[in-house]
Amino acid sequence: MKNTLIILGSFIISCCGTSQSSSTSKTTLDPKPNANTESTVITYAESITAKELKDYLYTFAGDDFEGRDTGEPGQKKAAEYLKKQYQRMGIPSPLGGDDYFQEIPKSYFRGDIQASENVLAFIEGTEKPEEIVVLSAHYDHVGKDSSGNIYNGADDDGSGTVSLLEIADAFIQAKKDGNGPKRSILFLHVTGEEKGLYGSRFYTENPVFPLENTVTDLNIDMIGRIDEKHEDEDKNNYVYLIGSDRLSTELHEISEEANTKYTKLDLDYTYNAENDPNRFYFRSDHYNFAKHNVPIIFYFNGVHEDYHKPSDTPDKIEYDLMAKRAQLVFYTAWEVANRSERIVVDGAKEKK
């Protein structure tokens, strides 16, 4: 996650309160989002496992990738690694052929930052392929310090990056079984988040698919740890959600009901408050979609003592909890991708 606040300019989004849950007067989830049974959907979700996340993360947040600093050799190695994983899974690039990289030139960045690239993979929808569900996570981190200490960024944002890989694997297996999503899904690994949300800004300014066709962005940035507020055993089955109700009441309700039905996490909206001094809503890659009126959800575990330190390492990740959080993203994406109608953008909180 970016460590400094983004200049907001003139763009203002109406903000929401701190309620731990919301009540609805109707059933939001489609009773039959497609031909798949509930047990089938659960089977795909449960293919997202703690073991596989751990295997991915010990590689991705290892020293070989040198802290994944934007434009540096370690980040380039990480990009190649992601490309190889998608090729192994049989998930193509939307750019065609062997090209999984959306190139960002050096001139786009401020300061002495070298050219970099977003990594894109794509599963085409079976019925509404022109409508795009984006799942995003940044794969860069902050590199090394002057003493050579490597900042591995296991939680920030190795956790989100490898969760995207597992979610993608679940979706492609569904497609191979004849249960592919109705809408297309773009797996978007963005670079330069730590430098100022560069990768996601570049994508939204140069979208591969028109933003007006983008249904939502579900953004994962740090879902592998437990923060101080939730350290007690009776409080640690949680995830922070930010932004889910700011642009689409329907998206918020889908998220709530998917959690109630499947993952049963405690959804904490503390950082979604209008007066939240941390202003996390503006500090990760979903923001560049939200400012273009694309509904978003930001999944987050909160900061911890190893945030932006060399001690953010894979051995400190809560893998079982991380898997459950990733499954919530999958269930929500599944519903959004397969429901009969596109979710409505209603400027949710502006109406309340």
Helicity level: 25-40%
Chain-averaged pLDDT? 91
Secondary-structure content class: alpha/beta
Helix count? 9
Query: In percent, how much strand structure appears in the residues?
Result: 5-15%
Spatially, the strands of the biggest sheet line up as: 1-2-4-3-5-8-6-7
The coarse silhouette is globular
Q: In short, what is this structure?
A:
The chain has about 350 residues and is α/β, with parallel strands linked by helices.
Features:
alpha/beta, globular, 32% helix, 352 residues
Overview of the structural elements:
The chain is α/β, with parallel strands linked by helices. The chain has an eight-stranded mixed beta sheet, with helices on both faces. Helix 2 (50-60) packs across helix 9 and helix 3 packs parallel to helix 4. The protein has nine helices and eight strands. The longest helix has 23 residues, at 154-176. It has helices at residues 38-45, 50-60, 73-89, 154-176, 193-196, 198-205, 249-263, 286-290, 319-338, and strands at residues 101-104, 116-123, 128-138, 183-190, 214-220, 238-242, 266-268, 296-300. The two termini are 30 Å apart. Helix content is 32%, strand content 14%.
